[in-house]
Amino acid sequence: MTRAEAQRMTGxxxxxRVIEAAIAVHRELGPGLLDMVYEVILAxxxxxxxx
Length: 51
Fold this sequence. Notes:
By secondary structure, the protein is mainly alpha-helical. The chain has one domain (3-50). It has three helices and no strands. The chain starts with a helix and ends in a 7-residue tail after the last helix. 0% of the residues are buried.
């Protein structure tokens, strides 16, 4: 996905990508970590590249 395509995403599409990424991170790292750990990992993901 190009940057221009990512900029045209709807709010629903963005929400879907964020939730999918959060679930993937949680599955990989497992439960019980501080929220900060999950936040740092999600902040480093390039959600546009995950398409």
